[in-house]
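Reproducibility note. Readers wishing to regenerate the assembly model reported in the main text can use the exact inputs given here. Chain order matters: entities are listed in the order in which they were concatenated for prediction.
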Amino acid sequence: MTLLTKENTVNVSNTAAIYKSLQTTICRTFEQADGTGKFTQDEWQKEIGSGLTCVMQNGSIIEKAGVNFSHVSGIFSENMAKLLGEKANTFEVTGVSSIIHSGNPFVPTIHMNVRHFSLDNGSSWFGGGIDLTPTYINAIEARWFHQTLKDICDRYDTNFYPEWKTWADDYFYLTHRHETRGVGGIFFDRMQPANEADLKIMLNLTCDLLKIYPVIYSQLMKDNGYKPFTAAQKKWQKIRRGRYVEFNLIHDRGTKFGLETDGNIESILVSLPAEVEWVYQNQPEAGSPEAQTQELLKKGIDWVKG
Amino acid sequence: MTLLTKENTVNVSNTAAIYKSLQTTICRTFEQADGTGKFTQDEWQKEIGSGLTCVMQNGSIIEKAGVNFSHVSGIFSENMAKLLGEKANTFEVTGVSSIIHSGNPFVPTIHMNVRHFSLDNGSSWFGGGIDLTPTYINAIEARWFHQTLKDICDRYDTNFYPEWKTWADDYFYLTHRHETRGVGGIFFDRMQPANEADLKIMLNLTCDLLKIYPVIYSQLMKDNGYKPFTAAQKKWQKIRRGRYVEFNLIHDRGTKFGLETDGNIESILVSLPAEVEWVYQNQPEAGSPEAQTQELLKKGIDWVKG
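Running the prediction on these inputs yields the following structure tokens for the assembly.
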């Protein structure tokens, strides 16, 4: 494989420009869907590279949203080499990651991440995914969510969705709770095509995810954002958010990587929800909507088939 | 060193009986100091051993308290051998750990832990400590807290307090935030005496910590438990609690050990506060009590000297 440095080829710098422009679209779409909430923009520059952290707090429906873009490069450390099983001198990576928490318990939490990674040894790959974490699982909504992702994947390769759906089930899993984070979605990593044409496919696919992401969530906001809820339903949301915090701080690789490399801590932890609660041995009443949700927090559910 | 298996010698089984009876005293003292809150008792039995998890939720002053006793034994795994740099076939350990969170922002969060560990190769050691995490740091209170711990340590060895105070500064440190968890206290591990007499000293010292712990906290509850507070002060408490969650899930060795060994998850995470909040880039106003507290979250402060 040759190094992808020419104009119009798929390289990380070109990808970064495309991703950054899609970040702008995402934020604009969310502002429109929310009605009152606005994103603040924090540009940061470090020796390692630059980024733009966009955060919305206390909108009408969106309680806390982070949409982060970054483009960094540096020395390929021994730790990275061990982790990735490759030898190289330098790396370059760009990505967009986002998490949205709504104040309304009937609007799920959503997470999206895409990234393009390359090494100076010629390796170049894409990773990413979208997953949904409802406070109350609605099977029809979960089916629509998965079908939407499947439709995008199927445009490129019909093997993608089934493989990446399983990957998401395995990745977004709280081993210490023996439960999934939510209804999953898709997750993929190190998709390293053998040629330029296939690299372009992966770039296009990740761009499709960046485009569908605000469309999916705007629909969920529209459908659920103004549903009335009780104090007990709000409490259940805060308890479920506790699981989200546990996943991000204990398991999530991106968060761990950020914490270990002394990254921009406020950007990394903007993923955490605003109000969270931990209750000792909270057990939803048998047969309640809360108990039904808890029973669905397991791997291997074929949401599309239903 | 000979194995400590005779009656009246310091061995883990004898220590377990003493620790368990002190757990009862701790819970009784907290119930008296709180006035209305009561501890629930959950006894658990697993192949590895047994324990008693005592939890109070929603008392008058205490919002959430866990006082956990456990006594377990098992195969000394390769992971443990690597971690401890010793060879052995089996281990046995007993301990009490406790964390108290108050609903009142002027009552600090406190943590106490003591443990006695032994291996079938003859090694036998103690570890533990007490540390304090105020929402608002009160220097007079911090001084009194440290002086109380120093007085206990000094009864046994005047080197203990200065060494263990530094150890606590280093241990209760959020590397990703570059701040200490609170005003520290004492922390020690693998105190492995060479003879029976010195083992007894360590046993007595850990028992003194178990006895002073509820005395210290009852005083803090009495002094601060009914102070009025504003919504802004409560919010600051929830934000500081976010740091507590970060420390426990990211850094704390005991929590990590529990999560990795598939321990009793509700007992392990009873340490987490009830209501928590994360706010992006929260910056207390310069000169405010919140900013003053934040400035004191650093290592090396000689609280006793003041």
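We highlight two features of this model. Chain A has one domain: 12-295. Strands of chain A lie at 40-46, 49-57, 62-75, 90-102, 109-119, 124-133, 173-174, 179-180, 184-191, 275-277.
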